[in-house]
Amino acid sequence: MIIPVILAGGSGSRLWPLSRSMQPKQLLPLLGKHTLLQDTVLRATDLAKATLTIAPPMIICNRDHHFLVEKQLHEIGSTEHLIILEPEGKNTAPAATLASLIAEKHYTKGACLLILPADHFIRQFDLFAEAVTAAAMAARQHKLVTFGITPTQPETGYGYIKAGAPLETMGFAVEQFVEKPDLATATAYIQSGEYYWNSGMFMFTASDFLQEMRNVAPDILATCEKALKNTFQIDDADFSACRSDSIDYAVMEKTKRAALVPLKAEWNDLGSFAALWEVHAADQHGNVTHGDVITESVQDSYLHAESRMLAVVGVSDHVIVETADAVLVAHRNHSQEVKAIVSQLKQKARPETVMHKKVHRQWGHYEVLNEGPGYQVKRLTVLPHASLSLQMHFHRSEHWVVVSGKAEVRCFDQIFTLSANESTYIPREAKHQLSNPFDDKLEVIEVQAGDYLGEDDIVRFTDQAGTDPSFCCK
Known about the structure:
Blueprint: E1 2-8, H1 36-45, E2 58-62, H2 66-75, E3 82-86, H3 92-106, E4 112-117, E5 121-122, H4 125-139, E6 144-149, E7 160-166, E8 172-178, H5 183-192, E9 195-205, H6 206-216, H7 218-227, H8 236-240, H9 247-252, E10 258-263, E11 267-268, H10 273-279, E12 288-290, E13 293-296, E14 302-305, E15 310-313, E16 318-322, E17 327-331, H11 338-347, E18 358-361, E19 364-372, E20 375-382, E21 386-387, E22 391-392, E23 396-404, E24 407-411, E25 414-418, E26 423-426, E27 432-436, E28 442-450, E29 459-460
Parallel strand pairs: 1-2, 1-4, 2-3, 6-10, 12-14, 13-15, 14-16
Antiparallel strand pairs: 4-9, 5-11, 6-9, 7-8, 7-9, 8-10, 16-17, 18-19, 19-20, 20-28, 21-27, 22-29, 23-26, 23-28, 24-25, 24-27
């Protein structure tokens, strides 16, 4: 049996302003109708078509993304998955350790874990399935397998793996892991034919991985064992003490069991806008466009418009990305440096690193339409049979106007219904709740007024379906 373990906890800061901490790149539809997470889940479950025995996927993600992950899995018909919620990101080694501990206790003995980042692009499925089949054979021989991408060009943005002696099964022993090289070194690697790009994908049995963790990273193993309090839940305080480290650094560079299986499929880790430009089909001028984009004398550029028309004249090799609250302009060759911009924004506590103007919640979503001193205007979209939490504000009052659908409103001890073109006023310190118990979507314009309008001015009394109140918050 193969258990796909999909690591969906990354931040994707190099794809800002599309990717934000509350909606990172793996949860965005950057390549088509599906998000990167959905594509990864579908690719993993489709391995059953290659006569492999595939267990339902195990997804490891940040607790803040729980409802979005659940929603996206539901959209593609995934119902038997297991979601493990990390209180905070600690890189891939602790995530793989948690998955291995769970697999050892709750899955078939000897099952192989297929570790897949949720944000990769792989084009030829048959080559992917072929590599997974070979890796499973090596893993059952007690190897810790990494997938090496057959390089197509000297690439300075990837780490490399040097292949050693051939194995009895398909693949090679790992001779050396190499950090991201300069161009001359990368060129020499390609010419030698001995090096592969480091994909960050792995396969091993849970028992073999845990045995190596006891040898080379016992502190991470001990912390994860302590944090895994019950079947699938992780203790916040214990996990916060875990050292952050990658599978590569913590285990693969130290173990004597490391093996490499080549993956010849077209692959990209989508780590920058330059990478997105590479994998998309360009027009006759080499431009990749999304949204309402008008160009004149523009070549070899990535142009993305989210909320308005984007007009571009006389540039080449550029990245221009427009969202409702931010615009990024960069040379395509410098797109890796977007991460430095995000660091500056975080130092200034700018909200643009956290969420978009349109914010998804378990009950639907809201969008900030306008704001200024003492007021804020939002559009709330509440899904059928969904409800916001019962709550109260100390510093603001709210006016609700129903645009479409019908709302059930609780204010103090009164419960009443509002239809389209009807409104109500929610005073400060009024215990209130907005619900949509009907079959149609509800849209409400909310006008907030007060001396403080922050999201932390919310006292919650109940939440939807017994979940964490933060999933229901406005």
